[in-house]
Amino acid sequence: MTKSMTKMYSFWFFLPAGLLYIIFFLVPTFLSFFFSLTIWTLTDWHFTGLDNFRIFLTEPSLSIGFKNSLLYATGTSLLKIIVGFLLAAFLTMKLKTRGFLRSMIFFPNILSPIAVGYIFSSLMHPSKGVINTFLGFIGISGPDWLGDPGMALFSVILVDFWKGVGVAMVILIAGIQAIPAQYYEAVKIDGGNPLHRLRFITLPLSRSSINSVIMLAFIGGIRTFELIWVMTKGGPGFTTDLIASIIYKQFQGGFYGIATAGNVILLIVVSAIAMPMYKLLTRKEIDV
Amino acid sequence: MNKIIVMMSVLLLAAGMVFSAGSAESAASGAAAGKAEKVLWLHFAGDAQQKALDAVVAAFEAETGIDVEFEYRPGSAEGENLVKSRLAANDMPDILSYNSGSLFQVLDPDRNLVNLSEEPYADRLLDSFKSTVSDGNGFYGVPIQPIPAGGIIYNKKIYAGLGLEVPVTWDQFLDNCEVIKKAGTVPVIASYKDDWTAQLLLLADFYNVLADEPDFPEQYTANKAKFATSPSALRGFEKIQEVFVKGYINSEPMATTYDNAIEMLATAQGAHYPMATWILASIAANFPDKIDDIGFFALPGDSADSNGVTLWMPNNISIPKTAANPEGAKKFLEFFVSDAGMKAYMSVGAPDGAFAIKDVPVPAEVFPAVKDVLEYVDANKTAPALEFLSPIKGPNLPQISVQAGLALKTPLECAVEYDRDVEKQAKQLMLQGW
Questions:
Q1: Is the Cβ–Cβ distance between B215 and B390 less than 8 Å?
Q2: Chain B: nearest CA to A12, how far in angstroms?
Q3: pLDDT in tens, chain A (288 residues)
Q4: What number of other Cβ atoms are within 10 A of residue B103's Cβ?
């Protein structure tokens, strides 16, 4: 039986997908390893060894970039997971307006990040923006959201959170709804209150979806680009530069070799963070 | 290793070739079907001179029957990136607009563009312009705008109202700023949301650098002179910071755009704007009744003896080697710099500067600010900006200038950072000595 099963699908079925994978994923990846070692003008290349990596790693704004990317990824994933979980727990209760609220919260996610960026740039204008006009109305003088070097990154983190919390919520709702009702009944019978149900049933049993959300939000945060580019372009100066925006700037400058080296570094950083994180998180998962 | 790379590149480019073959075929069949001859021109979007260019195009079409069609691309680094990628993919129009000087060198003109040295109009162009679109083998572009001048664009009404005089030293300039500030007007407009505008103060200061260190461009290109170690070059970053520290710039500089700045200057909310004269066409278009209030003076140096203006070189149009209709494009370039072309250019309004073309006189009716510039030109008090004397310009100068302009770092730190930025560009161009 097993033998005939393995023979049922010929190796050739692998070919179309495999070929696409090789041409559009493996070849560019290996080419980028090569070009990261050269001065590259797209038409010409000149081998320079590890010079590009040295230049990229000593780029004055890069230390900011690493710090900011980590801060951004941690900040957005923390916000998304905490608020997303509370929203999911709330919106799996039997509410009349449940569907409406769910779509309201999910809605920002279907907008393009570029559009969101432009909208919030205008909302966050220090004197003419809606946010500060409103704050001024209730007697608070709002900060310069995107112009203050100490504030700008957090403003963008808030916008990313607003935009992305819907996805976190949907994944968590799916996880919570998959929890069998008898566990909750058991808590009820033992005399537990709703808080106990949340703490001892919902939280541990939706662990796997929480992990997915953390992974997705964190990796998304590390390699994020559009929002920061539209809202601050990495400015003022370099204070909100992320790894991805620094790489993009190298491309813009025509330093294709250096930019490719940056991408290789980004690949290594993402894998180095994502793999152990995945192991750590899945260790505590409980099967429902 | 080499072989594998070549093979893989061939594999990847195969798809691209299918596309380019397809477009070549369609162009040929279009001509066979007897359609009008067409020239495609890739130009900057939102060019303030667009009206003048349209007039030249209309005159050209009337004379030759060749259609000129515009295609637009964003300006600054984003657009440069697009042009470089399209060059590499052999996806070029017949005519390409681009900056002259150091940015132009990055296009590798000898490899990618048609050499124009043998064209009949070659002698009509000023040598100072030709040198900025040349390499050892010849020159590749013709100018499409008047020569811009960098310095301080100022509101004459504010100056007249406060009884101020045009400053010839930096200290006098700061004194004027103090008076203007006390009168409740913004002395210096900072539009750092469009960060490219932040570097103008430094770039326009180059006349003063050159007066101090005449061999700075050569030494700088040869990796011997640095912004951080040359006191006069460092002054640029210091000046950007000084106007901030003394409280002379507007509030919310990070929310102020180039367009906001134009409005502030024209409506006398701000007195000075460090900028180049390409701004005049925009002021004239948006505030036609205010353009006569606008004047120009050179960025003041530390000594009254050397007071002159830093000149940019006009943007140019060139013909990519892969153009589908190079002959049509050549005809257009020739027409553009001819007397008929220049006449059409000036038919929509007075130019905002002198042309880099010989024997094209500037009409008497020009904006007052242009008259201010021409006074420096007639007195021979001009010098080209650094990017037209050296092939290297660091791409991060806008952001580094913003850092100086908001005092996020000291001028010296900014200069050191910029020197590193320049090093990358020099290495990319594989210059000697880096």
A1: no
A2: 22
A3: 455 555 677 788 889 999 999 999 999 989 999 999 998 887 788 898 898 998 888 877 777 888 999 999 999 999 999 999 999 999 988 888 889 999 999 999 999 999 999 999 999 999 889 999 999 999 888 889 999 998 999 999 999 999 999 999 999 999 999 999 999 999 989 988 888 888 889 999 999 899 989 988 998 898 889 999 999 998 898 999 998 999 888 888 888 899 999 889 888 888 888 888 888 877 766 665
A4: 19
Contact A234 B399 (CB under 8 A): yes
The C-alpha of A116 sits at a distance from chain B's nearest C-alpha, in angstroms, of 17
Antiparallel, parallel or unpaired: β B149-155 and B309-311 = antiparallel
Summarize pLDDT for B43-61 with one digit per residue, the tens.
Answer: 999 888 899 999 999 999 9
Residue A66: which of A222, A174, A178 has the closest Cα? A222
List the 413-432 stretch of B: residues with Cβ below 8 A of A: 417, 420, 424-425, 427-428, 430
Helix segments in B249-406, DSSP class H = 258-266, 279-286, 326-337, 339-346, 368-378, 397-405
Helix (H, G, I), strand (E, B) or coil at B349: coil
Do the Cβ atoms of A156 and A227 come closer than 8 Å?
A: yes
Q: Who among B111, B255, B424 is closest to A255 (CB)?
A: B424
Q: Cα separations (Å) of B269 from B73, B261, B279?
A: 32, 9, 17
C-alpha distances out from residue A64 to A242, B158, B256, B275, B351, Å: 8, 42, 25, 30, 45
Which residues of chain A lie closer than 8 angstroms to B252, CB-CB?
A: 126-127, 144, 147
Contact A127 B252 (CB under 8 A): yes
The answer, for A254 touching chain B at a CB cutoff of 8 Å, is yes
What does the alpha-carbon distance between residue B276 and residue B387 come to, in Å, rounded to a whole number? 14
Nearest chain A residue to B6 by CA: give it. Answer: A31
> B182 in contact with A at a CB cutoff of 8 Å?
no
Question: What are residue B114's phi and psi, to 5 degrees?
Answer: -80, 130
Rounded to an integer, what distance in angstroms lies between the CA atom of residue B21 and that of residue B16? 9
How many cross-chain Cβ pairs, A to B, lie less than 8 Å apart? 100
Q: Domains of chain B (ranges plus CATH)?
A: 34-143+315-346 (3.40.190.10), 149-312+368-428 (3.40.190.10)
Q: A238 contacts in B (CB within 8 Å)? A: 399, 403
Q: How far apart are CA B400 and CA B406, in angstroms?
A: 10
Q: φ, ψ for residue B201 (rounded to 5)?
A: -60, -40
- Answer whether A142 touches B (CB < 8 Å): no
Whether the per-residue pLDDT at B14 is higher than 60: the answer is no
Q: Is the peptide bond preceding residue A108 cis, with omega within 30 degrees of 0?
A: no
Tokens of residue B431, six digits = 């210059």
pLDDT tens digits, B59-108? 999 999 999 999 999 887 788 888 988 988 889 999 999 999 988 988 88
- When CB atoms are compared, the residue of B88, B425, B428 closest to A43 is B88
Every domain of chain A and the residues it spans = 48-283
For residue B320, the cross-strand partners are B113
Provide the 8-state DSSP code for B166.
-
Q: Report the distance separating Cα B411 and Cα B403, nearest Å.
A: 9
CB of B199 within 8 Å of any CB in chain A? no
Q: Which fold has domain A48-283?
A: MetI-like fold (1.10.3720)
